[in-house]
Amino acid sequence: MMSAERTGKCFNKCVTQCVAVLYIKSVFKMCPMVPISLLAAILFALIEYASGEGSPKLFFYPTVRTKGSNEERIQLYNGQILHVSFWTNETIRPSASSTSYDCKVTSFSPSTANVDDCHVEYDSGNQRLNGSFRASADLLGHTDIKVIIFASPNQTYINDKIHTIVVQKQSVAQHIFLGSIILLVSLNYINMGCALDMNVIKETLRKPIGPVVGLTTQYGVMPSLSYLTAVYLLSQPYLQLGLFTFGCSPGGGASNMWTVLLGGNLNLSITMTFLSTVASLGFMPLWLFTVGKMFFNETAPRIPFRNILTGLVGIVIPVGVGLIMQRVCPKGTVFCKKILTPFSITMIVFIVIFGTWVNLYMFRLLTWEITLAAMVNVWTGFLIGLIAARVSGLSWPDAVTVMVETGIQNTGVSIVLLGVSLPKPDGDMSAIIPVTASVVTPIPLTVLWIVLKILRCLKGPAHKEAAHDKEDVRFLSAHNNEKSSYSG
């Protein structure tokens, strides 16, 4: 009976094949491309069937969706331990030889996220496989996690993977650091406002050689320099974007403090910082939407106008308070001017130490290429700013001011721009460039400050004290004369 049944099946198969061959031959005589198209369609259908129905897939939980796509991925916060569940996408009817299952989980980048403790079991109620594994986030970045399910005896039943990202969650220490920086910088701007001379600022704006040179180096040289440095020294697109965005940012608040320490022109420094921040509203979009397009492949840059305007308000209000103090409290103004230098030193030390500790996790991403690119960009900016100022005929204090304003960028603006423009964790990872630049910035300035201190000590401390006393007497005399003229 089995022989007759088998003979019948073979006969039917042969008849079917003969009919198919005769049909293809007849069609081929009409049009040679028809059978080729038919065979291609059958082949594609078989491939899709094999990849879709023949290969069971896994669902994972918890997952997040990528912006602009339907891709699901696992998201971990740096230092987080997460238990991930998974289950099959189809029902399973196990045979007697494959009723037990085992699983293996691996991470393509264990330094980013490590995985272990994988187990799986068969749920007879819904006839699916359910399992879980443990994922431990250790470093910002991307990785793929692969899960292999074995059906005994040692046969691979499912081989699936899911993309995983590790992002940074802002800590309490970072919030404290940000709040303390805002407070201390505002207090220091009040001190600077007490030291400003509006007559000098007006004269500077009448003959704006310094501001013009500074804006030229700030928004002409620095973006070009950062572009070349990014292209030739960095390989990752998100790092290139981080450096270019940093180079297009306005001057930072620390530039005013360094101007005070290096004996620069504080009036010119405040003026240039304000003008640079205002100019960034136009120059940053200009650079980022033209040259920056090569770095923004899938997303468009989002300029943080609110943060820039907030920075302007953060300069104008405390400086205005200092200017008012010059009118109503001249003796207090003299005191604020005297503590300006030590307060600035304290500020810089606080920013470097506390800021390094808060962002310590980022230094695990640090490479020699990132460090070299940051040093080349910032230190070359200092040198070009100093040379351009001296060639333009500016005095040494004004040249030092232009140098500082050119090389020191507003890291906050660049970090916010990268964070809102790039998907996580690329925005967090690209911020390593501004952070590294802020760390290497004080090195040449500290060396210059030490050299200048040595030279001033060689000239004698008495000369320095006499100069300060003479300046304070001149300020009080000018204030008294102004009051007497008003009363007259």
UniProtKB/TrEMBL annotation:
It is a multi-pass membrane protein. InterPro entries: BilAc:Na_symport/Acr3, Bilac:Na_transpt, Na+/solute_symporter_sf. GO terms for cellular component: membrane. Its main location: membrane. GO terms for molecular function: symporter activity. The keyword Lyase does not apply. The chain crosses the membrane at residues 172-191, 212-234, 266-288, 308-328, 340-363, 370-389, 431-452. It is found in: Membrane. Keywords: Membrane, Symport, Transmembrane, Transmembrane helix, Transport. Belongs to the bile acid:sodium symporter (BASS) (TC 2.A.28) family. This is Ileal sodium/bile acid cotransporter. The lineage of its organism: Eukaryota, Metazoa, Ecdysozoa, Arthropoda, Chelicerata.
